[in-house]
Amino acid sequence: MQPPKKIRLDQADKKLILEYPDGAFVLPAEYLRVYSPSAEVRGHGIGEGTLVSGKMHVGIDRVAAAGRYALQIFFDDGHDSGIYTWAYLRELCETQPEKWQAYLERLQREGKGRDPDESPVKFIG
């Protein structure tokens, strides 16, 4: 898998813009953070991995090349252990609507939210 021809970090809008010969993709920091390829998020085995919640306001401090095959993203919440291969970044671009919807549905199923300042209240009757 070829790397994007251009990578631009927009810190103010908290997004990464990847330009390929066939088009550009905008990946929000929150999306990249919750789909980090790190063992912390993906887990060490088969399954859904750990659900990351409360990252609505997360930003990206910087990005760096990881060899010639990947990008390392340094998030402002201290997370930096995910190595995003060129193939995985392209997958995130091409499947963003489906992955994002699956994430939102999983948050709802597990009673969690995107906003770190909100916690779901459960009334017991």
Main sheet: strands, sense, barrel: 3 strands, antiparallel
Radius of gyration: 15 Å
What is the number of helices?
A: 4
Shape: globular
- Share in β-strands: 25-35%
**Cα distance, first to last residue?**
55 Å
Strand order of the largest sheet: 1-2-3
Helix/strand class: alpha+beta
Helical fraction equals 25-40%
| SSE run | EEEHHEEEHH
Q: What is the averaged pLDDT score?
A: 92
Number of strands: 6
Low-confidence stretches: none
List keywords for this structure.
125 residues, alpha+beta, 3-stranded antiparallel beta sheet, 4 helices, 26% helix, globular
Short description:
This protein has helices at residues 29-34, 39-42, 86-94, 96-109; strands spanning 6-10, 15-20, 23-28, 60-66, 70-75, 83-85. It has 125 residues and is an alpha+beta fold.
Topology:
Elements: E1 6-10, E2 15-20, E3 23-28, H1 29-34, H2 39-42, E4 60-66, E5 70-75, E6 83-85, H3 86-94, H4 96-109
Antiparallel strand pairs: 1-2, 2-3, 4-5, 5-6
Q: What does it look like?
A:
The protein is α+β, with helices and mostly antiparallel strands and 125 residues long. It is built from 4 helices and 6 strands, in the order βββααβββαα. A 3-stranded antiparallel β-sheet has the order 1-2-3. The longest helix is centred in the C-terminal third of the chain and has 14 residues. The termini are far apart. The relative contact order is 0.19. The mean pLDDT is 92.
